[in-house]
Design a protein that fits this description.
The chain has about 550 residues and is α/β, with parallel strands linked by helices. Among the domains are: about 170 residues, Rossmann fold; about 60 residues, no CATH class; about 100 residues, Arc Repressor Mutant, subunit A (Orthogonal Bundle). It is built from 23 helices and 15 strands. The strands form six sheets. Strands 1-2-3-4 form a four-stranded mixed β-sheet. Strands 5-6-9 form a three-stranded antiparallel β-sheet. A two-stranded antiparallel ribbon has the order 7-8. β7 and β8 form a beta hairpin. The protein is elongated and about 110 Å long.
Length: about 550
């Protein structure tokens, strides 16, 4: 045995498995040519951020559009930042928006797939196998420097004005220790970390092809980065290389703040003998800053919409959120949607090349518009189901009212749906209560405010005349014809164009007459189709509300 092999045996006495064994245990995936294997790998350190949902969605799109696989991996090596049961919050966030992974973590203590474990803290044996190989090949070594010594090193570099700072070259105190010196320290119980023995040179550069940004040239990594911490847990960087190789990842989609780490990551892949993955660095999700007029990143502290739970609580349909995110992800999505109004989101031909390099601007106003359009395409049964699901969780009183008669709620929410011009008055499920309140006695509050051109006396006269001719059995055309037939006798014209030509000749037009009726029955000047509302309310309630309105206007 040479000194490197002796050192490896000393550092990893219990590791009997080899990298070749791991290659056999996690073989290349049987997928079509060109299929992308992607992953989303969050840390359980807080709520799911909208930027995380964005990146995860891109990862799923890239995999699905190529016939590949996307999995969820939990990176929990930083125990100091981890929160209790942070995994469940992440899982629930994805579930709420219909983001389905092909494999990986499925719950607090559950997972599916053949390339696990999918939680990093359960993969220690894998990292140690690779680490042992690196030591055997002279590409890794133990570092016994204390925090105080590392601080002193940084201070010396500051004083010397070195261009690059870190643990490398002449500054790497433990890099050239003899085996005898290493053995003595290890046997004495001195704590140590395992470091990469970098082969990079300060004057050399390399190029990698970013899937979004194109070719990027960067200096080689020259630092002897930490691979394993004193407790044997890997750093993010080392775990990334091992996990993505043995899980057979082809494309890593991540935030552009990680571009600076690419030299180290490429160096780690090459030192381990692994083929490097392809990187797609996503620009952050931005928003307009009202104070500066510029753009800034969405902030967990300042912006409620930074947390995906905000969209759940407000009641944005998952379909609308994903639809909107696709408008940010690929610049040609809206053209595709116009050409494919009923197309499934995952039928869209996603492309990295159509992604923005500068950062998508998150616009809540546009999201609400997209959501209105998405809901307008839903049938009454679907809107009813989503409304009940939302209300049960976030508005129990409203849920109790709706759940008494689901068939009636479905009637209410089916008004003006499935038509050439469907209603677009609902953007979020939290608006449904106000939208339908006039159709429920428990929620209805009369509001008899009239347009300025109609007096209370005129309104009472119109309603009394309408009550005499109202017939609940009329279809929509016959119902509206009765209103038009009332006009002339009341001093109104049934023809709006005629009124516009000579407004002084009439008290108003048919629109004014129908507005009075609408206000009397619904308490609103704008509603969906009034005939459909009458049919849902029923004759008894319509007549009762008209009578109440007449009494109010007569004073």
């Amino acid at each position: 045995m040479n000194d490197n092999q002796k050192l490896a045996a000393l550092l990893f006495p219990d590791v009997t498995e080899t990298v070749d064994d791991l290659e056999r245990r996690f073989p290349p995936r049987a997928l079509p040519e060109g299929a992308k294997v992607t992953r989303f790998a969050p840390s359980p350190t807080g709520f799911l951020h909208i930027g995380g949902l964005f990146s995860a969605f891109v990862s799923v799109l890239a995999a699905k559009s190529s016939g590949g696989r996307c999995f969820l991996r939990i990176e929990d090596t930083d125990k100091k930042r981890e929160i209790a049961d942070g995994v469940s919050g992440i899982i629930e966030g994805f579930r709420a928006f219909g983001i389905d992974f092909d494999e990986g973590v499925t719950g607090f203590d559950s997972e599916v797939g053949d390339y696990g474990p999918y939680v990093q803290s359960r993969r220690a044996s894998i990292y140690h196998v690779v680490a042992k190989k690196l030591v055997e090949e002279g590409l890794a070594y133990p570092c016994f420097c204390t925090e105080e010594e590392l601080t002193a090193l940084r201070e010396k570099q500051e004083a010397a004005g070195t261009l690059i700072k870190g643990y490398f070259g002449e500054w790497a105190a433990c890099r050239n220790l003899t085996f005898a010196e290493q053995e003595e320290k290890i046997k004495s119980g001195a704590p140590y970390v395992l470091r990469l023995r970098s082969t990079g040179e300060e004057t050399r550069k390399f190029t990698f092809d970013d899937q979004i940004r194109g070719k990027i040239e960067m200096p080689e990594n020259i630092t002897d980065a930490v691979l394993l911490k004193t407790d044997g847990i890997p750093t993010y960087h080392f775990a990334h290389a091992c996990d993505d190789h043995f899980m057979r990842v082809t494309h890593v989609i991540r935030g552009d703040e990680w571009i600076a780490s690419v030299p180290l990551h490429i160096a780690l892949f090459r030192a381990c003998g692994f083929r490097p993955v392809k990187y797609a660095h996503v620009a952050p999700v931005m928003k307009e800053d009202a104070e500066t007029g510029g753009k800034r990143k969405l902030s967990k502290r300042k912006d409620p919409e930074a947390a995906v739970s905000y969209f759940v609580e407000e009641g944005f349909p998952k379909e609308a959120v994903l639809e909107y995110l696709l408008t940010l992800i690929n610049s040609n999505f809206e053209d595709w949607r116009r050409a494919n109004p009923d197309g499934a989101l995952f039928d869209f031909p996603f492309s990295f090349k159509k992604m923005s390099q500068s950062g998508a601007l998150f616009d809540l106003v546009k999201l609400r518009d997209v959501s209105k359009n998405v809901i307008s395409r839903m049938d009454g049964a679907t809107v009813t189901l989503y409304t009940l699901e939302w209300a049960k969780r976030f508005d129990p009183d409203f849920y109790a009212i709706c759940a008494r008669d689901e068939a009636y709620l479905r009637q209410v929410l089916s008004i003006d749906r499935g038509t050439a011009k469907p209603r677009k008055d609902i953007a979020v499920w939290s608006q449904v209560k106000d939208s339908v309140s006039y159709l429920y006695d428990d929620l209805y509050t009369p509001d008899y405010a009239l347009p300025e051109n109609i007096s209370a006396q005129d309104a009472a006269e119109i309603l009394a005349a309408y009550a005499r001719v109202y017939d609940a059995s009329d279809d929509k055309d016959a119902w509206f014809q009765r209103i038009k037939d009332l006009c002339e006798g009341l001093g109104y014209t049934p023809n709006v164009k005629e009124y516009k030509k000579d407004p002084d000749a009439f008290r108003g037009h048919v629109g004014d007459v129908s507005t009075v009726i609408r206000v009397a029955v619904t308490g609103r000047r704008n509603t969906p189709d009034l005939h459909a509302i009458f049919c849902v309310l029923g004759e008894e309630k319509v007549r009762a509300r008209i009578a109440d309105a007449i009494a109010f206007y007569k004073g």
